[in-house]
Amino acid sequence: MYAPVIKSAHTRKRYKFGRYEAAFLDRIVSEEIGYEFIIVVFEGKNADPFLFVTSERNDSDANAESFRELGLDPETLSAEKSESHFLCLFDKHGHHNFGDSNDWGDAEKFEVAALRILTEQLGEAPIVV
User: Fold this and answer.
1) What is the pTM of this model?
2) Average pLDDT over residues 76-86
3) For the ranges 11-15, 65-69, 113-117, which has the lowest average pLDDT?
4) Of 27, 28, 24, nearest to 14 (Cα)?
């Protein structure tokens, strides 16, 4: 499964979704992608997470450089201004992008959206532990 590679993070909060456990992370140091927040889900005491909801920083300079490396002109790809963060889900089917918004850079707004997604995915409402 393609998943975020986290070198270090701070746990803001923990949740239980029935038999699943989750941690809301911030102050994340990762490889390549800049994550503002991540909620990572484990099944029981299993050490390997299987589900992630992320707030990914939209680094327009890095994105433009990536396009240039592919031989594409970033100015011609989109005339619209992107928002500051992407809301994404990583599951067994891959990486799913729910769109960009400045809201995903706000911890409370991200948490509400991420918990809604996870409740749908897991079939259980979260309990803060």
Assistant:
1) 0.81
2) 66
3) 65-69
4) 24
Count Cβ atoms within 10 A of the Cβ of residue 13 and give its class: 0-12 exposed, 13-18 middle, 19 or more buried. Answer: middle
Q: Where do the DSSP E strands lie in 18-124?
A: 20-30, 35-43, 51-57, 85-91, 94-101
d(CA 36, CA 56): 6
Nearest to 37 by CA among 28, 45, 46: 28
With tokens 């959206």, the residue in question is 113
Write the pLDDT tens digit of every residue in 39-56: 999 997 778 899 999 999
Domain ranges of the chain: 6-128
* CB half-sphere exposure, 98, CA atoms < 13 A: 17
- How far apart (Å, rounded) are the C-alpha atoms in residues 124 and 19? 9
